[in-house]
Amino acid sequence: MSITGNSMSNPYSSVSDLLSNVRNFKIIECNATMLSEFGCDYIELTNPAASPQSRDDCEAICKLGLKAKILTHTRCTLEDAKLACDCGVDGVDVVIGTSQFLREHSLGGKDMVAITKQAIEVIEYIKSRGCEVRFSSEDSFRSDLVDLLSIYRAVNNVGVGRVGVADTVGCASPRQVYDLVRTLRGCVSTDIEVHFHDDTGCAVANSFTALEAGATHVDTSVLGIGERNGICPLGALMARMMPTSRDYILSKYKLHQLKAIEDFVAEAVEINVPFNNPITGFCAFTHKAGIHAKAILNSPSTYEILKPEDFGLSSVHFTSRLTGWNAIKSRVDQLGLDANSWPEDKIREVTAKIKQIADLKVMTLDETDALIRSFHLDLQKGHG
Amino acid sequence: MSITGNSMSNPYSSVSDLLSNVRNFKIIECNATMLSEFGCDYIELTNPAASPQSRDDCEAICKLGLKAKILTHTRCTLEDAKLACDCGVDGVDVVIGTSQFLREHSLGGKDMVAITKQAIEVIEYIKSRGCEVRFSSEDSFRSDLVDLLSIYRAVNNVGVGRVGVADTVGCASPRQVYDLVRTLRGCVSTDIEVHFHDDTGCAVANSFTALEAGATHVDTSVLGIGERNGICPLGALMARMMPTSRDYILSKYKLHQLKAIEDFVAEAVEINVPFNNPITGFCAFTHKAGIHAKAILNSPSTYEILKPEDFGLSSVHFTSRLTGWNAIKSRVDQLGLDANSWPEDKIREVTAKIKQIADLKVMTLDETDALIRSFHLDLQKGHG
């Protein structure tokens, strides 16, 4: 039986979909070289035009000979593109604002004809240098749909490698994403890359939904670090994909390295891994409620669609006032104290005692175990 | 002009939808009494049967006379329901496992006929006590669709107040959510409550999509705190709804209190507010990249779909090596140093100097400002 159980008696997963790429996608990572080893397909670096250090970093990383391809993300100008190619990257990801907002406030009022002309010129230049090229619009979900499709079609026709859809402001919702990517899928023959900011908490869901609609590449970063509250986190995307495409993920990504990568980046930028981070947050696999703990002890797949062991981690069971007697009974057995030899009353009595104490203070598993053992001693002495 | 700009030239928001409740929904909050004041419609407490403290808490909170209605979440048994009603709650939210997994591992192999009979008995009891009653299935997305619709229809027919859809394991994706809630909307006339766990990072997106499909009530908790990595966070849901239903949210919820509520809860349970928390995370409104900072200074709505002031907060602009000269030029003006009187070369020179220093160390705004002022002094002395 599959650990996820998702494929069993689930009315939603049985219909196959030729366009969906949830079982066949690529990740474009915007952070840290450890990610090549992890299995990321691309590593996207800061624009070398941003500062002298950015340029030095880019040149140095290109020389490492990583398995992952090295990209950089630049403005859609010949100047930036030339510098990027000079640094030795495998590909250049160019971006230009297409929404009315950005054309007005960032591009000094350029119209779509001028933007398209500029895009084609830059794309042809990058291709002439032997590099991959991706063209992305910026703020795609507040751009005019016809403008968007026109420019994507134009760059598709000059042989761009990928087109990119970017929710630069984090406003998109999953159904909008599905509609736009599905529509785009019918208009271009290139790969489709997606980039989702997380301002409204939808970056992971939007990435997943884009894959369902036919996108091929997803932009992520470690812990989602990026402008404002960031983009789709690599770890959360892994969590999202595992129930859907477990075999693909396990064959491609070294999931046991995820925690080390996140810890490394968190330390480097001086942040804490969020308590509720998918997979590696300190409580991602904890169970407190009695009805949950009971079922988990019977079968982890009842409440865990992710197997902590797949990530080199394990479940944690707090003892709290929400603990139920089934959980305690299982613990009695785990301690080798044969729960079946206990009168049911005694199990309920020790459970009530544990709940009472857990109302007063946090109980470690050691404390719980000691209390269970003390009741067991009473039983043996016939005090029960 | 709307700050979000979402309604302008956006091909996705122009089609109205009679079933969608994104502009008219209710929140069921599972944490803390401050939330009544914030504007939450319901506060859902731990099952009073869980422990003596849980029972005492429930009775005490019921006596506070809050504006929000007090609910408790219990197993679907007469025993739990009776205790809940005795505590003085306004309503009881009962839940029972309907998936094959839970029926086998949590309910000892009960079939759907027995579960339905039990549900009806409990619902009728709670109604007879004059309380609201919600019936929810558990692990709804791994339950058989026909079983689900049958039991929802049965409880609808005996006059349940709300039916609940729960993604107990966090496996659902937005399109699954839309399909199930939309289908359910056609089968029952009651309100529909949704409850999403965040194991795969989709809780916020799923809640939003459920509202689009006709759900009426959303379960949240402060910072998403709940089993494993939690449920839909209250703050993130606010962030998600603001671009869609700004007027409704502002009229109903005291958003300025959000940060204080989150800080209070974080301190109480000894966690840190995640760095990337929507709205209140320390970098939620920070802008580093040059092209972002430039546009933000021209018009915040270019990269901010949420107005920090709506939440009693403000934007933060780091000075980093990614700073662009447009941002520096704006800063010159903000300091009252008339950027137009500067030769463009001088602006570019100070920008290059700032980028160079920011490669070496984190620069505060004070340091940046001091550097700008020193260049201004040079100009005045004719050293430029």
Would you kindly provide a written description of the structure presented here, covering whatever features stand out?
The structure is a homodimer of 384-residue chains. Chain A has 384 residues and is of the alpha/beta class. The first copy, chain A, contains 14 helices and 10 strands. In chain A, helix 8 links the parallel strand 7 and strand 8. In chain A, helix 7 runs parallel beside helix 8. The longest helix of chain A is centred in the middle third of the chain and has 19 residues. The two termini of chain A are 42 Å apart. In chain A, 54% of the residues are buried. The N terminus of chain A is likely disordered. At the A-B interface, helix 2, helix 4, helix 7, helix 8 and helix 9 of A face helix 2, helix 4, helix 7, helix 8 and helix 9 of B.
